[in-house]
Amino acid sequence: MKLTHRIASLVLAIFIIIGVTAPVANASARQLKTGIAFVNASSLRLRSSASTSSKTLDYAYRNEVVVVLGKTGSWYKVNYNLQNGYMHESYLRYTTREDGELGYGALNGNKVKIRSGPSTGHSILTTASIGDKVYIIGINNQWFKVIFGNHIGYIRSDYVDLTEIPYENNDSSKSPLFFRGGKSTGLKPSPEALRGESTGSLASSIIATAKQYIGVPYLWGGTTPKGFDCSGYVQYVFNKHGISLPRVSKDQYKVGTAVSKSNLIPGDLVFFNTSGSGVSHLGIYLGSGQFIHASTSKGVVITNLNNSYWTERCVGARRVI
Q: Taking all residues of the chain, what is their mean pLDDT, rounded to a whole number?
């Protein structure tokens, strides 16, 4: 009887040890990616260890991209086409902050926070679950920049497992949509563009969202449907579609590209000087001479841009989609 109890106790202890150590093992398997690097040699060996005498695992070619996992002496530990190995620093252009199309990755944790910027100090846009796919479009100091659902945000890189050969590399059957060699292809990253939708469709979606909040009262400093100020309203609407904008109107006036009043299209931002001291108000252009904004007197409302009050105070427009 005593022997039976001892065996049962031993089995229980083993299960407890397994239960305690398993999550730790899973956590330790995660690895931060420190940056990405571009090959600047005609042919570069991927080696099994940090030595010229080690086995050659593969060859990478000029302008191909690798994900950097760490460094040993003058050797980078890298992931090249989903294979880990080592490459010498002399033949790589390494950066900790770069645009790069790495394709889809899979999350290896639950309730992973996708943030508006590359640190825990930034706001949470949404959360994702283990196995969810994110489309990686860059890295910023150990945080991947990703498209997920209707958001563009940042995830700490150790919570993302690489699942595809980077689209810039020769062995990939796919071509990059947004970036090649850290340079824009001319297509602005957005959830809609990734899904193959046009800018016109994106503008229509943004405008439809903006109109949902007609009648919401004005609230100075307001950034939620309980009450908006002008810039909080625009920021909130665009964030719903994965486009992050600065918080205040004068900073929003610095993003995107300038457009003239005669070339406005739906979805453009129109800016005004209502205080006598520079940009202090803005709204979203709807087309047909109308814009929607959070008015101090009426809350969210649609207004005629050609009204003399607004015409006299209009200081410019920006295109951010």
A: 89
pTM for this prediction: 0.61
- Counted residue by residue, the chain has a size of 321
Instruction: Please say if 281 is a catalytic residue.
Output: yes
What does the pLDDT look like over 209-227, one tens digit per residue? 999 999 999 999 999 999 9
**Euclidean distance between CA atoms 65 and 163, whole angstroms:** 15
Asked whether the beta carbons of 238 and 320 are under 8 A apart, the reply is yes
Q: Is the pLDDT of residue 307 over 70?
A: yes
Question: Which H or E run contains 2?
Answer: helix 2-29
Average pLDDT over residues 159-179: 93
Cα dihedral sign, 249-252-258-259: negative
How far is the C-alpha of 269 from the C-alpha of 282, rounded, in Å? 7
Q: Stretch 42-47: mean pLDDT, rounded?
A: 98
The CA distance from 106 to 271, in Å, is 40
Integer Cα distance of 230 and 219 in angstroms: 9
pLDDT of residue 77: 98
CA 291 – CA 200 distance, rounded (Å): 16
Give the DSSP H or E segment for 209: helix 199-211
Mark whether 293 is an active-site residue: yes
CA proximity to 65, closest of 27, 23, 94: 94
Catalytic option among 5, 230, 241, 314:
230
31, two tokens: 């690895």
Nearest-CA neighbor of 87 among 121, 57, 117?
57
Pull the structure tokens for residue 315: 């200081």
Find, among 313, 302, 300, the residue nearest to 227 by Cα: 300
Give the active site residue among 88, 122, 241, 281.
Answer: 281
Residue where the block lists tokens 């959070």: 294
